[in-house]
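thread from #wetlab-drylab

HS: before we spend reagent money on co-crystallization trials with FE2/S2 (inorganic) cluster, can we at least see a predicted complex? here's what I'd submit
DV: go for it
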Amino acid sequence: MSDRTVLDVYRYLPDNESEPTFQSYELDYQDNWVVLDALNHIKAEIDSTLSFRWSCRMGVCGSCGMMVNGEPKLTCETFIRDYDTQTITIEPLSHFPVIRDLVINMDDFMEKLPRVSPWLIPDEDKPLEDGEYLQTPAQVAHYKRFSMCINCMLCYSACPVYGLDPSFTGPAVLALAARYNLDSRDDGMKERAAEVSAHEGIWECTYVGECTQVCPKDVDPAGAIQMLKLSYALDWARSVVMPRSSGS
Amino acid sequence: MVEKMDSLQHDVLVVGGGGAGLRAAIAVARDHPDTSVGVISKVYPMRSHTVSAEGGAAAVISPSDSLDDHAYDTISGSDWLADQDAVEILVENATDEMLQLEHWGCPWSRDPDGHVSVRPFGGMKLERTWYAADKTGFHLLHTLFQTTLKYDAIIRYDEWFVTSLIVADGRCQGVTAIDIRTGEMLSIGAKSVVLCTGGGGRVYPFTTNGSIKTGDGMSLAYRAGVPLKDMEFVQYHPTGLPGTGILITEAARSEGGVLVNNEGRRYLQDYGLGQPLDLKDPDHPRKRTMELGPRDRLSQAFVKEREAGRTFEGADGDYVELDIRHLGEREIDRKIPMVRELAVRYIGIDPVHDPIPVRTVVHYMMGGIDTDTRGATSLPGLFAAGECACVSVNGANRLGSNSLTEILVFGARAAVAAVDHASRVSLPSNQLLESSARSEQSRLEATLLRKNGAGETVSGIRSDLQEALEEGAGIFRDEATLQRTCSTITDLQERYEKLVLTDTSRTFNTELVTALELGAMLDIGEAIAHSALARTESRGSHQRTDHPDRDDAGFLKHSLAYQSEGNPTIGYKDVTITRWPPGERVYGNV
Ligand SMILES: Cc1cc2nc3c(=O)[nH]c(=O)nc-3n(C[C@H](O)[C@H](O)[C@H](O)COP(=O)(O)OP(=O)(O)OC[C@H]3O[C@@H](n4cnc5c(N)ncnc54)[C@H](O)[C@@H]3O)c2cc1C
Ligand code: FES
């Protein structure tokens, strides 16, 4: 089954243009096409200069996030047939500088990510000969959800706080900090505190919850941030009441 | 990510930020903190296609299992074309690599007692496939990536595209690469270069491989005179979703899923894969039997069923049905949630209630850059590991879940060899680096970036190449189809010379990137077709209808394709046999 639609696509080439423009592409699409298929069709058949990122086209590599009719979406999971508007508007993810067309600059995220030490910090190193750390399915379930982040940037693009203040550490990075803090094998909560519990960290989040709503992988960064607030507040309270035991 | 320097240099430069590349980089940074290491990747590392692996990674863990069993399964699965010394290294190091990942935080699925869980996989005699639900590659890659972040010594070049190897004085001394964001061509010098650039499934039209899998690293080595080994062996996975080619993992069958034709018959019983057990039988699914047979056999059975008119007809091609309904919603959601997610989203079928339509789909390249068991190639200073390399542990047919293991084991080993080499040579001169970048830029300006030509397009040549390979070098091939494919590829190479790009800007020029990728695809397409034409026997995934039998006297050998003027030269080298003399591949009730 094929139908006709118009894609109104944001174009911007900072080399030559001072302002972004929109370009309309009218095309026949198949019922089973996602937005990314349409963009690839444009690139192959109509306009090879259109620039965007993609790779896996199965919703797991995190490359293809864009604004579709004003909402952040993974375009390889977003079906054209689900839009009944005459035209579908495609723009780069909000809140990021644009490198070109639909390609955003995500240096800010890449720079913030290592700051929360998103790696396992065990109490003490265990030699491989001693086998695996035991972890029950329930203990895995405790952090699993927060480990599902594909770094697609949709949450940053939806977060009003990040939109106003780019120094905010932001949803995905904080969710990853929570992922490790909640892992029974990890003992790095204190090491992460300086960054996570800083003003630009969890405390800047006003719990609007947009991040969780747009997350295509059901990670729930807003929930992660709430949990972090609670655990760092408790930790702080404990350090006030029992300074020595908490500091050890 | 990178501070621009006049000259960029590293002791070890890893090309590729997938599982193999990141494992190699960590091996250098953790075990040799004084060694400078760079990782260059055409996409951000966490976008690498390792991310899409679903089912799991094989390593012996249960007391009833043994390294010899894992080795035997791998070797018989390879139709005896794997090098047995390499296989022994694979199985001996596999468990430590999995444990290492566990210690780095990988969320492996667990048994109730807290130990890691393992599942059965096709062609494997016992449960030995470690998994993180059915997003194993995703978790593996992100665990590795996040672990690399703790090493300041690892310098990343994200979204840089390598265009050539710098070879001087008979050794590899770095690469030339385009910083995609600025369009600038630069050289990165290195004492050792490790190619971890992944496979090239995109040379076929219907594949589980992402857009980045275009065989670039294989082509870089090929152009530098290093042979490509066993390129005729291309794995078709039996269960891809019609239309998109998205993979439905073999884990669906490990957990008990069955394949059914349009007569409702579990047709694999007609192809020497044993007898079906009742779905309620506690022994179902039986290992190395029926749905847990090897992929080459299952994909060949699909073609035979289609020829006999026993497949279903669909808008996106013929298919059979993969039925997992009997597992029930709870087990499906617990063990293979992504299967359900993908089927519901992309074809609107909920496998809890309906069978999933599936068809064969190009999945993996057994062949690749010829290396020894340390990952060294014939060019001093050049190493390779992962799917781009052929060491060879996969021979004529890879067993599912051996590749994730391979990228870890051999990624780490190649790093060791690269560090060792780096300790014995010096860095290239600035002059060499500058002149290499300049001449590479001139090469592009004289070809792809010139302003006038006869108007060939990337997409036009690419789809003709894909079609030629599927038509002539598919699951079954013969001399006539292969010859046609070879001559089509020659024509396409001529057309490529006339390619003209519309996009002339420097900033993030994806048309230029796809054009460079297409150049690599033509190289590996050529190597696949010519190696397949020369191998006049049938073995594993290489099935010649005009030479239906395995011929150990003539072809218990690796083929080696060397780039030459005109057609490639095909040579051979012996397979290493240690303890398992060639025998018959027996699957079914044994
Ligand atoms: C859908 C799917 C499911 C799979 N499931 C399993 C499974 O369950 N178990 C299993 O064992 N195997 C599985 N495999 C196979 C396995 O995932 C791959 O073989 C393996 O991940 C390859 O890893 P790699 O590191 O070699 O390459 P990749 O992960 O593909 O990485 C290649 C890297 O090289 C870089 N690169 C390439 N060319 C250039 C260039 N020109 N310049 C700069 N950088 C470049 C890329 O940017 C990328 O970072 C699966 C494969 C697919 C497609
Ligand atoms: S292309 Fe990978 S998430 Fe969309």
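DV: Chain B has a mean pLDDT of 96.
HS: ok that's useful, forwarding to the group
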